[in-house]
């Protein structure tokens, strides 16, 4: 599973990609700040 696929899955749970550089993706949760 790639990071992008994971990000798409996590989007259902309130996460979003805040920064993407190369293969590094930072996810931020909108649910009480848990990451």
Structure description:
The chain is an alpha+beta fold and 35 residues long. It has 1 helix and 2 strands. Strands 1-2 form a two-stranded antiparallel ribbon. A hairpin with a 2-residue loop joins strand 1 (15-21) and strand 2. The longest helix has 8 residues, at 3-10. This is Type II toxin-antitoxin system HicA family toxin. InterPro entries: HicA_mRNA_interferase, HicA_sf. Keywords: Endonuclease, Hydrolase, Nuclease, RNA-binding, Stress response, Toxin-antitoxin system. Pfam families: HicA_toxin.
The termini sit apart by 19 Å
Strand content: 35-45%
Describe the largest sheet. Answer: 2 strands, antiparallel
Let me know the average pLDDT.
Answer: 72
Order of helices and strands: HEE
Number of helices: 1
- The helix content, as a percent range, equals 10-25%
Radius of gyration over C-alpha positions, nearest whole angstrom: 9 Å
Number of strands: 2
Number of domains: 1
Q: Provide the spatial order of strands within the biggest beta sheet.
A: 1-2
Shape: flat
Structural class: alpha+beta
Multimeric organization: single chain
The low-confidence parts are none
Keywords: Endonuclease, Hydrolase, Nuclease, RNA-binding, Stress response, Toxin-antitoxin system
Pfam families: HicA_toxin
GO molecular function: endonuclease activity; hydrolase activity; mRNA binding
Protein name: Type II toxin-antitoxin system HicA family toxin
């Amino acid at each position: 599973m790639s990071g992008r696929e994971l990000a798409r899955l996590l989007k259902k749970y309130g996460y979003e990609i805040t920064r993407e550089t190369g293969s590094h993706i930072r996810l931020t949760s909108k649910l009480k700040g848990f990451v």
